[in-house]
Design goal:
- By secondary structure, this protein is α+β, with helices and mostly antiparallel strands.
- The chain is built from 5 helices and 4 strands; from the N terminus they run ααβαβααββ.
- The radius of gyration is 16 Å and the shape is elongated.
- InterPro entries: DUF1694, Ribosomal_eL30-like_sf.
Amino acid sequence: MDVNDRLEQNQNGSGPNLKPDEKRRYLGTFRERVVLAIKVSQVGSERSKVVLSEKLRAYPNATLLIDQDLAGDAYMDYLKLVIQAGNAYSLLSNHDVSKQTDDPYAFVLAEKKAIDLDNIEI
C-alpha cells in the first residue's frame, strides 16, 4: 500500500483498527487500561457499587465508560457515584456489543494509559 493511501485512510478514519474485538468488549478501550469491569449481571449488586466507589477514589484520573443500553435504569446510580467522586465519565449508546460473551460489560472504569491490572472483575 502506498504511503499516501495510508495517510488518507487514517485522515478519513478508515485506517486499520487496532484490536477491534478487545475494544468492543471493554467499551471502546483496551484491556490493559481497565481498572474495573462490571458485567450486566452485576449491575444491580450493592457490592458492585461499593467496589466502584473504592476504585474511583483509588484512581482519580480514571474515566467511567457507561453503556446506557446495557446498564438500563441502574446507570443513574453509577452516574451519581462517579460525579460524587469527581471522576470523568462517558455515556455510550448504541455501542457495538461484544459477541464474545453472554454477559457483556455495562460499566468499565479505565485509565488513559496502560496499568495492566491482573484482576479487573468483581
